[in-house]
Design brief:
CATH superfamily of the largest domain: Metal-dependent hydrolases
Structural class: alpha/beta
Number of strands: 17
CATH class of the largest domain: Alpha Beta
Helix content: 40-55%
Strand content: 5-15%
Number of domains: 4
Mean pLDDT: 90
Shape: globular
CATH architecture of the largest domain: Alpha-Beta Barrel
Largest sheet: 7 strands, parallel
Strand order of the largest sheet: 11-12-13-14-15-16-17
Low-confidence stretches: none
CATH topology of the largest domain: TIM Barrel
Length: 573
Amino acid sequence: MKNAEIIEILENIAVLLELKSESFFKSRAYQKAARSIESLAEDVDKLVAEGRLQEIPGVGEAISKKLTELVSTGRLDYYEKLKAEFPPGINVLMEIPGIGPRTALLLTKELGISHLDDLEKAIEDGKVAALPRMGEKTAHNILRQIKAYRKIKSEQRVPLGTALPIAEALMEEMRSIPGLKQLSLAGSLRRFKDTIGDIDLVGTADDPETALKTFTSLPVIKEIQEIDRTKASVIIFNGLQVDLRMVENDSFGSALQYFTGSQQHNIDLHTRAEQFGLSLSEYGIVNLPGGEIEKFFTEESFYKRQGLHFIPPEIREGQPEISLAEKNLLPHLIELADIKGDLHVHSDWSDGAGSLETMLGAVRERGYQYIAITDHSPGLGIAGGLDIDRLHQQAKLIDELNMKNPDIRILSGIEVDIRANGTLDVPDEVLAELDVVVASVHSGLNQGIEQMTRRILSAIHNPHVDILGHPTCRLLGQREPVDLDIEAIFKAALEHNTALEINAMPSRLDLKDTHIYKARQTGVKLVIATDSHHPEHLKFMRFGVGMARRGWCEAKDILNTLPADQFLTALKR
């Protein structure tokens, strides 16, 4: 059974327990277990087989037994009995934003609704509006959300590398809105998730209503879905939904935190605050009972009022960040300024668009100390890979450029292809002459897990391979990762001192965040590299740094934060 299926069942149990008005903590336990499994870098099936389920945060003896039954039999008797206590279709309805457990129960009990088609018809017939506490406006909003839900379901999520530049360009255009004071990204985009569903923005203005109306009149806006005094939801030119929320200026910090944190992070934060007699909202903090609301202009002051150090957006995902912030034990996450060099760069010697001189100039503009030229090897014929003679010619030119440019170290390298049988398509004696060797899989991606794992392990074992490039071969929105025993890869990389690449190319972002987190915990060396094929691609480093931050990496966890000489010393060879 796949982890995603297990997560869905645990989430459904949590919701059904809430509907039964069971203990909050009982429902919360299943939510916590689901979030922990979502962050796992390995399959629950494997943990069951090895008796390691209780290593998962939030999985105690009771849930461990249920997971074992679920994995072993494909069903969970407890879940089936729980579902039987409710009308069918509740879980389907609750997937629609705005339909909570109680509304779903009302719709199923009063109208017998179990499918979205039935719900749409009931809204059109006026039956939903006639229900207690519903009304025409609520019914209309549910209908709008159903249409948006179906649209999202029919389309893939948008990669971070696509959405972020669009959001930044939109924000730049919005800065001309009269009276606009504050404006920031929020939601999953600010947390740097690798794919996003929509763009969330939070702002303040002298006249919020006028600012919202001006926002909806921008040329990039193609459709206005909703607008009121504090919020506008629109569809922009490429079909992405953008939600802009306007708040009071002195509540900007609390609102930004509220609309940035993941659902689980915010639940954990609220649960902790209640223990101290505090109530949190996007407007600020109330000291219960009956206290006046305290407003916060910055997120730092909002967290500080709760006795917490500032938690970076990228790690607000419901892991141990709150307990660590309480003890001032959060890591100092890596920053873009920590990067000293790029280790995966292509030139026009293979399939890149820039000459060595051009790429060198682009690197100088970024303030790096070194760059590794890693053009393709001959196995990837479509990329015009370098044979041995051309590789030697390029290395000679690199030596000459190093003599002329003492401020930047140019490292000779190659991206060598890992063949289907695990061998490399460049002889070892040639690889030994180079400064940096990146080994990558580019073909034969449909191999089974055992064959693919053996193939990659063979490259990791090679004494001349320094870095495993884009380890899972995924392409966001286009290609799933290869089948791979990632635990075996981590173990071998640690044993053979081979670094794993965090490929910053926006279409890849490979390793993903949960793999980075696990690799860092394991002690595996990591590098961040852009896989640049054009001078402009060097700017993608920020996406790799964002993934590393989501994996809780500090500068010390990434090899290319070291100066050139120290970096070369730290390499496998």
